[in-house]
């Protein structure tokens, strides 16, 4: 196989991992209540079956973009996710994947985590 072929394969494997690490570093820099909300959303979305690694990473990059901007603007978490965080996340995820399965327990955990994060700001 040529170097170009290997570079393409390596880029497909390593690229998403590097992007994921950058995403996680951005999440760590968020104020604690915004970070808690993003991490809750992240846990919830892990129940969806990924179709495309690049689209999955893009989803999380877009999520942190949204919360970074909200934190900078002082937008309350509940104003971002609304009254029903499950509806917010499932609508958000539809832009990146088709289908998936989320158990009731995960829905409850998301609702509770957003309630905790939202009560602090």
Number of helices: 6
Which radius of gyration do the C-alpha atoms yield?
Answer: 16 Å
What is the N-to-C order of secondary-structure elements (H for helix, E for strand)? Answer: HHHHHH
**Fraction of residues in helix:** over 70%
What gap, in angstroms, lies between the N and C termini? Answer: 54 Å
Mean pLDDT value: 83
| Proportion of strand residues | under 5%
Class by alpha and beta content? mainly alpha
Instruction: Note poorly predicted spans.
Output: 1-6
Overall 3D shape: globular
Largest sheet: none
What distinguishing features does this structure have?
globular; 121 residues; DUF1048 domain-containing protein; 0% strand; disordered N terminus; 6 helices; mainly alpha; single chain
Plain-language structure description:
With 121 residues, the chain is mostly helical. It has one domain. It is 75% helix and 0% strand. The chain contains 6 helices and no strands. The chain has helices at 3-28, 32-45, 53-73, 77-81, 85-94, 104-118. α2 runs antiparallel to α3 (53-73) and α2 packs antiparallel against α6 (104-118). This is DUF1048 domain-containing protein.
């Amino acid at each position: 196989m040529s170097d170009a072929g290997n570079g393409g394969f390596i880029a497909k494997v390593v690229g998403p991992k590097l992007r994921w690490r950058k995403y996680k570093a951005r999440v760590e820099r968020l104020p604690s209540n915004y970070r808690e909300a993003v991490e809750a959303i992240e846990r919830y979305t892990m129940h969806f079956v990924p179709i495309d690694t690049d689209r999955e990473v893009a989803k999380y990059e877009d999520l942190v973009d949204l919360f970074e901007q909200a934190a900078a603007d002082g937008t309350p978490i509940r104003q971002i996710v609304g009254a029903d965080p499950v509806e917010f996340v499932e609508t958000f995820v539809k832009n990146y994947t088709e289908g998936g399965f989320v158990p009731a327990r995960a829905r409850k955990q998301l609702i509770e985590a957003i309630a905790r994060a939202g009560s602090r700001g």
